[in-house]
Design brief:
The protein contains five helices and ten strands; from the N terminus they run αββαβαββββαβαββ. It is an alpha/beta fold. The chain has one domain: Rossmann fold (3-Layer(aba) Sandwich). β1 and β2 form a beta hairpin. The protein binds guanosine-5'-monophosphate (5GP).
């Protein structure tokens, strides 16, 4: 998605540790018009997938999942990072190592929100080492549902999670793939 590459070049800030900050349009502050374009692009990519539900992980995946949900007319479920008092009863649960904080969270989804006949499209803001997507895939598998594919708004190709999941046979679509980012600039993968 050319616009994603343009937004990264215009607004992105490279931080130490291979972190790309896009807080001005994707994470902390949300550009709602661009978010609509993202949702429309996800819908275009997965219009024939037969998806019945979108699954993401709190918190930065939620705006993207909501926009895609509107564009596709699908309900959105998000995994919570810690079992808390408002997530009661039976849950699917899996450990996910946080790229940005380094700690491991137990990620949970209440069982009643995923069923064995669901076809799940998984959405997140970033794809780095792939822990978040791997955890969400595990939750879908626990529910006996099917993963029709995954979308990351931004994949950092040099952290390899996307290519590992593709090699495992999953359809992974990223709206922009950063193959290299240094003080001299950002290189995108041709798609
Ligand atoms: P992974 O689990 O694939 O290693 O990392 C993906 C998760 O870590 C995403 O949910 C995202 O929130 C966060 N993340 C990974 N890399 C970055 C980054 O460069 N910038 C930001 N803002 N978040 C990131």
């Amino acid at each position: 998605m050319k616009r994603m590459e343009e937004m990264i070049l215009k607004e992105g800030k490279i931080l130490p540790g291979g972190v790309l900050k896009v807080g001005s349009f994707l994470n902390q502050q949300v550009d709602i018009h661009f978010m609509k374009e993202i949702g429309d692009e996800v819908a275009r990519l997965y219009k024939d997938s037969g998806a019945t539900k979108i699954l993401t992980i709190e918190s930065s995946g939620i705006p993207i999942a909501i926009s895609a949900g509107f564009a596709m007319g699908l309900p959105v479920v998000y995994a919570k990072k810690n079992k808390s008092s408002n997530v009661s009863g039976d849950v699917y649960s899996t450990p996910v190592k946080s790229f940005t904080h380094g700690n491991t969270n137990n990620v949970v989804v209440t069982k009643e929100y995923l069923s064995a006949d669901d076809k799940i499209l998984i959405v997140d803001d970033f794809l780095a080492h792939g822990s978040a997507l791997t955890g969400l895939i595990d939750i879908v598998n626990q529910a006996g549902a099917e993963v029709v594919g995954c979308v990351a708004a931004i994949e950092k190709g040099f952290q390899m999670g996307g290519d590992r999941l593709r090699a495992e046979g999953y359809r992974i679509e990223s709206l922009a793939i950063v193959d290299e980012m240094t003080d001299d600039g950002i290189t995108f993968r041709e798609q």
